[in-house]
User: Which sequence fits this backbone?
């Protein structure tokens, strides 16, 4: 508002009371500062529009971590067995049968492969630090007589967080995830995708992450705390060792049950990383920055040209055109400059008061807005008189 009022003063007041060079300097400086302010506003607007956010990571202790879901795919029929392993060395316990879906091959599927699953139903099975449960050990057997070692392209393993498995997640959650990130499920498939081979022993140690994606709306852009959509996922470190006696199976078909590989999936990391998405620019923050920048520009203008209610003259008047200012004042106040000089001999008290009122209105007091209510007292008296006449005539009528 200071710049708007200053523009009005340049048009209505300064051009009549100050030297032309000072008025020109005021207008030019004001135009430059407003242009800078407009450019800064445009930059802040562009930063808000182009803001992609940042990820703030935080490690949180997690005594309980869900056992991940596992999908195993192979060109030949196989079956799965598993047992639960403990850190304290106690005897492993077999997995419940309902946690394993033995392989099936859908004749209508595109890959024509056998798919088997291990699923921690409703999160029932969890890695638990207090119970020392830290891993699940799978034994994968093949019993397909068509199997030949030379044609083995490997067994494919996909691992997903059991709280966010694409196969089991509710449809509304599935749709929301695709809305926020169309490639999210493709990234999940590639994140923990491994190939194991015949007679291998494989270890997979997982780490859990929770990505909290911000649901963008007007209030979050404005600066209010946003709502988040949580997407748990896991990362893994994978190692494998091949048994040295696998060559003897070359060229021989499988008869009965034959162990294909072992797979251990567990964790020794009892922390989970929470990745929270946040905006770096918000409207309220930008307004605060704009207000601060406006204050800096207004301060520069006041420093250069003064602030009428406190210090009517600034650096420009005192250092650059000091003599012109003084000559201009003498033209306006030929007898004496009020507040600066003593009254002259031929100056009457009325002249002094008039000079003082003019000086205060020009340089110290802003009374322009008061002119809008000039004469209102007379209007109120006329309205009261008319109201009295109307009330008197009404009384006579009665």
Assistant:
């Amino acid at each position: 508002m200071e710049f708007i009022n200053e523009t009005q003063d340049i048009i209505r007041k300064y051009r009549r009371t100050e030297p032309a060079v000072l008025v020109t300097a005021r207008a030019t400086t004001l135009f430059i500062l407003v242009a800078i302010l407009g450019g800064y506003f445009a930059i802040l607007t562009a930063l808000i529009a182009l803001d992609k956010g940042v990820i703030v990571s935080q490690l949180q202790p997690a005594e309980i971590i869900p056992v991940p879901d596992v999908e195993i795919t192979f060109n030949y029929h196989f079956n799965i067995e598993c047992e639960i392993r403990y850190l304290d060395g106690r005897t492993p316990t077999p997995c419940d049968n309902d946690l394993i879906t033995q392989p099936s091959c859908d004749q209508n599927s595109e890959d024509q492969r056998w798919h088997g699953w291990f699923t921690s139903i409703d999160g029932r099975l969890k890695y638990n630090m207090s119970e020392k449960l830290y891993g699940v050990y799978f034994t994968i057997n093949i019993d397909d007589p068509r199997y030949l070692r030379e044609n083995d392209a490997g067994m494919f393993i996909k691992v997903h967080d059991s709280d966010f498995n694409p196969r089991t997640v509710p449809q509304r959650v599935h749709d929301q995830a695709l809305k926020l990130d169309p490639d999210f499920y493709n990234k999940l498939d590639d994140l923990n995708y491994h190939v194991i081979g015949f007679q291998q022993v494989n270890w997979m140690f997982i780490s859990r992450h929770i990505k909290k994606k911000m649901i963008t709306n007007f209030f979050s852009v404005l600066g209010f705390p946003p709502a988040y959509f949580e997407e748990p996922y896991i990362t893994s470190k994978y190692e494998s060792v091949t048994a040295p006696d696998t060559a003897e199976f070359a060229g021989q078909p499988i008869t009965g049950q034959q162990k294909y590989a072992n797979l251990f999936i567990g964790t020794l990391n009892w922390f989970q990383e929470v990745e929270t998405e946040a905006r770096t620019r918000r409207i309220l923050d930008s307004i605060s920055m704009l207000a601060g920048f406006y204050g800096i520009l207004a301060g520069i203008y006041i420093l250069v040209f003064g602030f009428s209610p406190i210090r009517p003259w600034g650096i420009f008047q005192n250092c650059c055109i000091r003599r012109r200012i003084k000559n201009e004042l003498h033209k306006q106040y030929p007898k004496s400059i009020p507040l600066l000089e003593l009254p002259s001999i031929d100056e009457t008290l009325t002249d002094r008061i008039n000079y003082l009122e003019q000086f205060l209105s020009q340089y110290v007091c802003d009374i322009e807005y008061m002119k809008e209510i000039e004469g209102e007292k007379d209007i109120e008296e006329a309205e009261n008189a008319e109201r009295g006449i109307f009330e008197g005539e009404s009384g006579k009528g009665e």
